[in-house]
Amino acid sequence: MQDLDNILEKLKEEIKKVNDEIELNNLRVTYLGKKGSISALSSQIGSLKPEERKDFGAKLNQVKEEATALIDEKKKEIDERVLNEKLKSEDIDVTLPATSISVGAPNILEKVVEDVEDVFMSMGYDVVDGPEVEEDHYNFELLNIPKGHPARDAQDTFYIEDDTILLRSQTSPVQARTMLAAGGDKPIRMICPGKTYRRDADDATHSHQFMQIEGLLVDKNISLSDLKGTFDVIAKHLFGEDCETRFRPSYYQFTEPSVETDISCFACKGSGCALCKNTGWITVSGAGMVHPNVLRNCGYDPEVWTGFAFGFGAERLAMLKYGIDDIRTFYQTDLRETHTFDRRDDNND
């Protein structure tokens, strides 16, 4: 017990002479280190009588706590002194220009998706999400794409488990899930932006991962003219009020009739250029009236309910709107492109 008191008194005397953090750290090791004088006494507990161990252990812990507090308090004192000396010795000219720090900008792809979402929400549409790892049942079968259809070819689809679990090749499964959840007796207005995956070789215009913005409207007495009006609204919002639209006949397994949707070329104003391949028109999406089989598969009576569906490639919209010529730009971390995006605005300046 006396040794512990002596050690503590000695520490109090020595700590008064400490002037910097190095000396303080050496003192900490001398007293509290594994081989320090206080720690060394703990090895004597085993040689004491049982009735003495409790009192000695309590005293040892008390001395450790006091020694630690003394050293911590001294460190605080040293740190404060060093800071004050530094502040006195350094002059700060607050009139000097601040350091320029690079600030990030929203990715243009994300901006386009949010822009499209805003337009459709203003028309009463819901934004719906769904799983990216999907079942074949939702990705193909409910959408009138039976077994053996070319779209199921393993060269196009990333299958995870045999031919039952896959990475969704389109966001259309979200439409099927939404219709099933609605129970077949409620109107639906929804869009489902999200990632999709296909076995494409990556190049300037193709990617194994890309964003789709698909939409669905199901109600009574819906016609192709309703789809045309909706397409006009989004096209004019994205590409300007003077943008014209047209439909061309096409074929998709899940719509009937099906159409390709075109916009008038904003680069040449219809006179013909490289962007529109001298046609005056640019294809931006596919669409059509929901196939009766799809309605029936998802619980809706096609004799009562009709609807239209459409799908945009988000990257294609962004590439057209902002003059980007390589789809890989969206998925790279080149800060120079970030600055380029930051300078672009909704007027394509």
Q: Could you characterize the architecture of this molecule?
A:
This protein is of the alpha+beta class and 349 residues long. The protein has 2 domains: 2-89; 108-343, 2-Layer Sandwich (BirA Bifunctional Protein, domain 2). The protein is 41% helix and 19% strand. The strands form 2 sheets. Strands 1-5-6-10-9-8-7 form a 7-stranded mixed sheet, sandwiched between helices. A hairpin with a 2-residue loop joins strand 7 (245-252) and strand 8 (255-264). It is elongated, with a radius of gyration of 36 Å. 28% of the residues are buried.
Architecture of the largest domain, according to CATH? 2-Layer Sandwich
Report strand %: 15-25%
Helix-strand topology string: HHHHHEEHEEHEEHEEEHEHH
CATH class placement of the largest domain: Alpha Beta
Tell me how many strands there are: 10
Mean pLDDT: 86
> What are the segments in which pLDDT stays under 50 over at least 5 consecutive residues?
343-349
Helical percentage: 40-55%
Main sheet attributes: strand count, strand direction, barrel closure:
7 strands, mixed
State the CATH topology of the largest domain: BirA Bifunctional Protein, domain 2
Rg result: 36 Å
The count of helical stretches stands at: 11
Structural class: alpha+beta
Instruction: Give the spatial strand order of the biggest sheet.
Output: 1-5-6-10-9-8-7
